[in-house]
Amino acid sequence: MIKGKEDITDKEFEEILLPFYDNYSEYLINFVIPDAIAFYLANGHSRNCLSNCPLVNHINSAIDVFNVRCDIDILIPIIEKILKIKYNLKIANINPLELTIFM
Questions:
Q1: Which of 4, 25, 74, 94 is found 20 to 30 A from 80 (Cα to Cα)?
Q2: What is the DSSP letter of 65?
Q3: Which uninterrupted H or E stretch holds 72?
């Protein structure tokens, strides 16, 4: 809430809180979620825990905890970069998901 106020008007919500929440969601989508999904995929791959399903299913499983709407088509290229840079992995196939060591 807005500091020092119990109740706020609709105008205060739209002008103050909504931009705050939108900015927070944008930060999650741009920085936190792609990195978390890449870790989810890399960790699952290294432990042989990824089921034989499409990439989109794994992404949806990983982002459920964030409760934020994401455009998966925008996330995939970012995730691919993180997998390559941090985990030396490449998405070889998206349906079913197949990860390989980047050469």
A1: 25
A2: G
A3: helix 72-87
pLDDT in tens, the chain (103 residues): 566 667 888 898 899 889 999 999 999 999 999 999 999 999 999 999 999 999 999 999 999 988 888 999 999 999 999 999 999 999 999 999 999 998 7
Q: What region, left, alpha or beta, does residue 25 occupy, with left being phi > 0 and alpha being psi -120 to 50 degrees? A: alpha
CA-to-CA separations, 86 to 10, 42, 59, 81, in angstroms, rounded: 44, 9, 18, 8
Helix (H) or strand (E) holding 89: strand 89-94
The pTM of the full predicted model, rounded to 2 decimals, is 0.82
d(CA 86, CA 59): 18
